[in-house]
Amino acid sequence: MSNILKAALDREIERYVAENPKSRAIQERAERSLPGGDSRNSIWWAPFPTYVTRGEGSRLHDVDGHARVDLINNMTTLILGHSHPAVVKAVTEQAARGLSFPAPSELVVRWGEIIVDRIPSIDKVRFVNSGTEGTLNAIRAARAFTGKDKIGKFEGGYHGAHDDVAVSVDPPITKAGEARAPTPVADYLGVPRKSPAETIVMPYNDLEASAAIIERHKSDLAAVIVEPVIGRLGMVPADVEFLKGLRDLTQRLGIVLIFDEVIALRVARGGAQERFGVIPDMTAMGKIIGGGMPVGGFGGRADIMELFNPKSGPKVKHAGTFNGNPMTAAAGVATLEALTPAVYQRLEQLGESVRKKLSALIKERETPMGVTGIASLFSLQFTSETIRDYRSVQSNDKTFQRLMFIGLLNEGFALSPSCAGNVSAAINEKDIDAFVAAVGRVMERAGYG
Ligand SMILES: Cc1ncc(COP(=O)(O)O)c(C=O)c1O
């Protein structure tokens, strides 16, 4: 089979190269000023990425004149789709009033009120400019609050690009140790040796093994950080009992539980914590709360967030030229206000529909594939194994995955390079049917007719 897949992949790439000459030319130019022509690894792929000219509703237009259905929405950010009228209006009006100020604006207060009102764990919130800064500050707060240094994370979990969490995101299996007691592995050169020494790694969705690791390190552990829906493994929701077990254990041991809801916030108006009924001490956010502008946030229990109160010190300093800037606040408020319960219900139905239709297709074609996801999030898996953790996701056939990704670009559909996707409110059932049909055609070209 793998020779058939390899030949099919070569044909998809040949077609992709032939149909995207302008993107290819820009990539060649980009390589003269940016390493590999790239400034963001997550949107680079071989042989070259497509260069986008504009987004409009559910469509992503590129320099070669393709208008693809956008099923990635800037890595889950654009929950309303591109250029939603309310967001465009808010940002345009704010731009005319001023881009950034050396003083707060009232918009940021409104933004904070919406977050505090919706997210159960958040008594107080602060805004930053990336999810990376969100998790970094939540972890720092936990360290300050507990007086301890170590943190615990889960194998395969991505929490941004800072040293503490650049550990065991995608470790080579040969270095990763036992499945139930993973060895912490630095993710790339430049991560200091202290990171894998100070960050303990646990198996996702395995409460018993994780609890044993937490107990062993309890006197040094400031925080456990976990995604209630783990993005990198294919938008896989945690078992509620797993999250509840982590909640009980960390509470008993005085360890701060941080939910990284940078992606998971999409699954309900109050985030995954509301949906699953498990309330952490701190929550890190990003993506949808900024409506498409650069954003991050962190918030949680009043007694922990008090560390940042400038009136009393502050105990933890936290500045940032663009924190809570009015442009991001404008886009964020407009987006969050447009996200009514009815919109969430629609996203839920569309997400359910895409997962059901893909599953039916996979079953009908007897293809070694699967579908994971929840609410508006989904991912194709290139294995028949049930995906619950980092080890099970290793069974994915990488050639098939790449073939599907490039094949779908050729068909006019944009997913992430790992074939994860999500629906925005700009999508409709017709787009979903067209997408599922396109997946079927790529399967056919891969030998699953
Ligand atoms: C779960 C999770 N946490 C944190 C981050 C980092 O966010 P940012 O890319 O805005 O720094 C990401 C980004 O994809 C993410 O998916």
List keywords for this structure.
449 residues, alpha/beta, Aspartate Aminotransferase, domain 2, 2 domains, four-stranded mixed beta sheet, 18 strands, binds pyridoxal-5'-phosphate
The CATH architecture name of the largest domain reads 3-Layer(aba) Sandwich
Summing up helix and strand content along with how strands pair, one would put the structural category as alpha/beta
Bound molecules: pyridoxal-5'-phosphate
Strand content: 15-25%
Mean pLDDT: 97
What is the total number of structural domains? 2
User: Major sheet, described briefly?
Assistant: 7 strands, mixed
Give the end-to-end Cα distance, rounded to a whole number of Å. 14 Å
CATH level-3 fold name of the largest domain: Aspartate Aminotransferase, domain 2
Instruction: Estimate the global geometry from the Cα principal axes.
Output: globular
Describe the protein's architecture and organization:
The chain is an alpha/beta fold. It folds into two domains: 2-79 and 340-445, Aspartate Aminotransferase, domain 1 (Alpha-Beta Complex); 85-338, Type I PLP-dependent aspartate aminotransferase-like (Major domain) (Aspartate Aminotransferase, domain 2), CATH 3.40.640.10. The chain has helices at 2-19, 21-30, 73-76, 85-97, 106-118, 131-146, 194-198, 207-217, 240-253, 271-276, 302-305, 326-338, 341-365, 390-393, 398-411, 429-445, and strands spanning 52-56, 59-62, 67-70, 124-128, 150-154, 177-178, 181-182, 199-202, 221-226, 229-230, 236-237, 256-260, 282-286, 296-300, 370-374, 377-381, 413-414, 420-422. A seven-stranded mixed sheet has the order 4-14-13-12-9-5-8, sandwiched between helices. The protein has a four-stranded mixed sheet with strand order 1-2-3-17. Helix 13 runs parallel beside helix 16 and helix 15 packs across helix 16. The relative contact order is 0.16. The model has no long low-confidence stretch (mean pLDDT 97). The protein binds pyridoxal-5'-phosphate. Pyridoxal-5'-phosphate (PLP) is lined by residues 75, 130-132, 135, 158-160, 227, 231, 260, 262-263, 286, 296.
